[in-house]
Amino acid sequence: MSELDKIRRESFLEDVKDTQIIITCTDNLEIKNENKKIFYVQNGKIENK
User: Fold this and answer.
1) Any idea what the Cα angle at residue 16 is, between residues 13 and 18, rounded to 5°?
2) Is residue 1 part of a domain?
3) 48 partner at 20 to 30 Å CA-CA among 9, 24, 38, 41?
4) Residue 13 covered by a domain
5) Of 4, 43, 42, the residue nearest 29 (C-alpha)
6) Cα separation of 15 and 18, whole Å?
7) Is the pTM of this model over 0.70?
8) Would you say residue 45 has pLDDT above 90?
């Protein structure tokens, strides 16, 4: 997602809004979605925030 500019990122997310998807990234994405869940993995442990 970091390869996309803001407009393309928002367009992509709009296109998949009614689909269950998993996005992995190394930075925190600012996305407008009430249904998003963020999981952090550190030292082999998963945290839901």
Assistant:
1) 120
2) no
3) 9
4) yes
5) 4
6) 8
7) no
8) yes
DSSP the chain: -TTS-HHHHHHHHHHTTTS------SS------TT---EEEETTEEEE-
Q: Report the number of distinct structural domains present in the chain.
A: 1
Structural domain for 21, as ranges = 6-48
Rg of the chain over CA atoms, in angstroms? 12
Residue 47 has pLDDT above 80, yes or no: yes
Residue 21, both tokens: 């998807």
Q: Give a yes or no: residue 27 inside a domain.
A: yes
Mind listing the pLDDT tens digit for each residue in 2-43? 788 889 988 998 898 888 888 887 877 777 777 778 888 899
